[in-house]
Amino acid sequence: MDYTKEELLEAKKQIASTVHKLKEVVKTFEAKENAVRYKSQITLAKRRVAAFTLAGELVEDKLKEQETL
Questions:
Q1: What are phi and psi of 68, to 5 degrees?
Q2: pLDDT at 69 over 90
């Protein structure tokens, strides 16, 4: 499927925003007094950070690909 440059830039922006928010969630849970209690939420948030980071890299690759055309 083909996406416009504007769509890709907006996706990149939204992904970056989501990654930032998820990293803050991780910090918040890890700072809690009994962080072990939140282990599953921390793990989930970290996995989401990894997935969104990968998605952001793929969007960036697609943008670079479009520039070479």
A1: -85, -10
A2: no
pTM for the complete prediction? 0.91
Strands (E), 1-55: none
pLDDT per residue as tens digits for the range 29-64: 999 999 999 999 999 999 999 999 999 999 999 999
Q: Report the C-alpha gap between 48 and 40 in whole angstroms.
A: 12
Q: Are 44 and 18 in contact (CB under 8 A)?
A: no
Q: Which long-range contacts (CB under 8 A, 24 or more apart) does 50-56 make?
A: 52/15, 52/18, 52/19, 52/22, 53/19, 55/15, 56/12, 56/15, 56/16, 56/19
